[in-house]
Amino acid sequence: MLKNLKMFSVVALLAIACSAMADDLGPTLQKIKDTGIISLGVRYDSPPFNYNLGGSQQAGYSYDISTKIVDAIKQQLKIPALQVKELSVTSQNRIALLMNGTIDLECGTTTNNLEREKQVAFSTTIFIIGTRLLVKKDSGIKEWSDLKDHNVVAAAGSTGERLLRGMNDKDKLGMNIIGAKDVGEAFLMLETGRAAAYMDDDAILYAERAKAKSPKDWLVVARPFTREAYGCMLRKNDEPFKKLVDNVISGMMKDGTVNRLYTKWFLQPIPPRGFNVDFPMSSDMKALIVNPNDRALDE
C-alpha cells in the first residue's frame, strides 16, 4: 500500500511538473493572456514596410507579417477575440517603449545589430537591405566621398545616422548631418534643398523615389555602405514568445507566403496612391528565404 502511494505521489508530481512546463508561456504571452490585449508598435510613414493609410488603417510588408504573428497568438492562447492595440513609434523611442512594456512587438524597419541585442531580442530576419543614398539626378553625388562638406539627412536614432556620424569623423568629410523625425521629413529636406543627400536603407529610398512627384528626378546611388537585417523586435529572455514568432516567420518563408508578400509590396502598385517601389528581390533575400535565421549583420 505504501509503495503504491509513493508511486502515485511520484506520478502526480511529474504530472504537475509537466503541466507547469506546458503552461509556462513566458512573460509576454502570459501578459497577453491575462489582459486580452497585444500592443504592437507601428510606423506612421515607412512604406512599403509599415505605414498608415489614414485613420487607424495600417499596411505594409512588415505589418502583414505582424498580423500573421497575432493570428498565431490567438490560436495558441485560444483567444479569437484578442484585442490588438497599435501604437505609433519612431526610430528614437521604439526600443524604450518595448523595454518598458508599452508595446509587446514591433515589426517595421528595425535593424538587428549586436549593440541593440544588448537591450532587446530579434526574431528570425524578415528583410535584408543595404544602406545607400538618395540624391537629385543632377547633384553630382555618386559615392560616399562626394558628400564632403554637404548637408546630409538621415532618420534620427537610426543606424544610418550613427553610421554617417562615424564615417564623418573617420574620413574627415565635414558633413553637416541632420536628424529627421521620420522618412517623410527626411525626403522633404532633400526635396527642398536643405540636404544634398538622404541616407537610408535601399528599399526605403526606392519607395521614397517612387512616391515623389517626379521620380525620374531622383537617383539611388553609392555602393551599399552596410548590409543590415531587419527583424521583429521583442523583449529579451522570453524564449516561448520568440519561439512562436520565429516559427511563424520561418513558416511563411517555407510555404511561399514571404515570396507573395514581396511581390505584393515591392513589385506591384501599393496603396493609397498606387506607386510601384520596383525593387527586385536581392540575392541576400533569396538566400534568407532558403535558410531563415536571426543573425545580426554588423558589417
TrEMBL record:
Keywords: Signal, Transport
Domain Solute-binding protein family 3/N-terminal: 37-269
GO biological process assignments: amino acid transport
Pfam families: SBP_bac_3
CDD domains recorded: PBP2_GltI_DEBP
Gene Ontology CC entries for this record: extracellular region; outer membrane-bounded periplasmic space
Family matches, as InterPro entries: Bact_solute-bind_prot3, Solute-binding_3/MltF_N
Coiled coil regions, renumbered to chain: none
Leader peptide range in chain numbering: 1-22
Family in the record: Belongs to the bacterial solute-binding protein 3 family.
Protein name: Glutamate/aspartate periplasmic binding protein
